[in-house]
Amino acid sequence: MTRTRAYRDGVLYKDGFPVEEVSDFLAEPDTAVWVDLCEPSEADLTDLAGELGLHRLAVEDAVQEHQRPKLDRYDGHAFLTAYAVRFDPASGRTTTYELAVFITPRALVTVRKDDGFDVDAVTRRWDLEPDLAKSGVPFLLHGLLDHVVDGHFDAVQALDDQVEELEDLVFDDRPDTSELQRRSFELRKNLTVVRRVVGPVPDVLGSLMRRDLRLADDTMGPYFEDVHDHARQAAEHTEALRERLATVRETQLNLQSDRLNLIMKKVTGWAAVIAVPTAVTGFYGQNVAYPGNGTTSGFWVSTVVMLVLSIGLYALFKKKDWL
After folding, report:
1. Domain 2-255, what fold?
2. Which of 6, 32, 39, 254 has the greatest count of CB atoms below 10 A from its CB?
3. What is the pLDDT of residues 44-66, one digit of tens each?
């Protein structure tokens, strides 16, 4: 699937033309072109690379999957790799969509590794800002990156809600330990995925805003700064969530240790209370004559002694909060 657009003098001139006409539009002055390719092969990119002068190594990276977020600079163009992120609270799964971008002075080429990335949302964003379209490629690149970074922020915020729910579960009267451990493990996996694709983005955008690339001009500079700030917030929020999740796990272990100590304290106290009548009955069970041996009074005396000592120990332990 291929999508194309051409802007002339800041106005959408043509939409949905064949890729073979890209060079014709680029021959016209004040024209910027966008080409979107979904799951292309290296052969599909070779013809376009010839027209736009794309470097062979960049074409290879665009076809290969699982590239790290980066910005590579070549003679006449730049190559950007980024990831869109989506977190589904219902399933608890984080999905990433890899995106490769060729940035030339008058053309923007996006290569999607699958159809999960919502490119229609990007075109809608462009249509909502026609006053910036005169900037050409910087305008197109900003709309694309703004959509990607907003997705990062939404995913991190959804994960933040999940961490808050986990924090509430920790302090339940009877927390489900297995459920807490399962959800903690899933959140840690999701945060690892998000951190891997969100963390490098601020540095990538910082390199993209260098003046020698001539993308962040006087018009688009503030807009790129805004995207960069949002990307930095998303990356910092991700790191904060990892720390919070580690704190939740540490708090859970501390609470489990406290509950175990409390249970052991109570069990030990009751064992001491029970040990007194056991000692008395054992003493009176000696096979020697003792006061009250074989009489009813001896039975009642031993019973009273056991009760008094047991109640006394219970009161003492209760006073010391051992029971």
Report:
1. Beta Polymerase; domain 2 (3.30.460)
2. 32
3. 788 888 888 889 899 888 888 88
